[in-house]
Amino acid sequence: MFSARPYNGSPTNAYRYNDTNERYEYYQQLTGKSDAKQIEHFIINGQLYVFVINYKIGEKENIDSYIYIFDSRTGFLAQHQTLDTWGGHDASYLELNSNHYLLVVDYREQHSVVNSTVYKWNFNNTQFVEYAKIPVRGGHSGKLFSMDGVLYAAIANYLTTTNEYTIKSHVWKLKQGGVTELVQSLDESGAGSTGIDAFTNDGDTFLVGVNKLGMDCAQNTIVYRWDKSTNEFKIHQRIPVEHCAYRSTIFKVGGEVFIIIATTRSERGGSSNDKYTSSSPIFKLEGITMFIKYGAMTSHACFDITFFERDGEYFLGQSNIRNVNGGLSNAALNIYQWL
User: Do 233 and 287 share a structural domain?
Assistant: First the structure.
């Protein structure tokens, strides 16, 4: 279990589960400057790696992000590789055709035109090497996925160079040798997109796009479905979200598909701390048709929710950056068990 808060100098900590008291306990603070936006872990050849993507330190956005490796000799995570990032916001790992890929989405706050990078694992030096560049406009989120053995990347673009929330999210195909091809711009995504995710169900491929248009939180989260006859994603469902949506997490339990949407505020505008208390809704896919409201959890400026399994049981880890009173101190990383 890892925890990070996107504020200047905030540490990134690792926690380990204690079987005796059935609680997660502080285990290690990861070395290196930390202003982490996202953490991605993966296993290559039986070895655990953890990638921490850093946003900025002070006003400096061009900073290092780090890949850590679990050292079985010491029992701790150690720095393995440094990646150059510019306002890093998200990362996505995918294994495909015995190859390993890592997408790093950069934001670059002051100049939103920047390339995001897809890295490919080099088995000889056991490090990631640059494979492809993807142009983004205020990149907020990204997801690697595959269809018919071909690698794709979906990018949620947030705003233009003139600070307008009109830029659409894009789907890219990555061809042999890292050549990129723009497949399409997603319909109704030009509303300050902050999240993108992908999943498959019954042979179909879906994308889920989260929109948050500047000061207006009343935006639909869009579910797209790949149309095999036209080779493009088409809108499958619009999900109204009551509060300020930021990211979606797709998970499966017992073969059923769920989406939970992390929310940051109940409404935009004003400085009242109680607005940081919001509801993160959970939706369930009924059959292969539509998502319906299933439940919700209370959030306090929640920027991400992670689904994980431990000993055959399922959990949701909720990362809040505000406390229950709306303040910045003692914000909680909450863990919920799925029952």
Answer: no
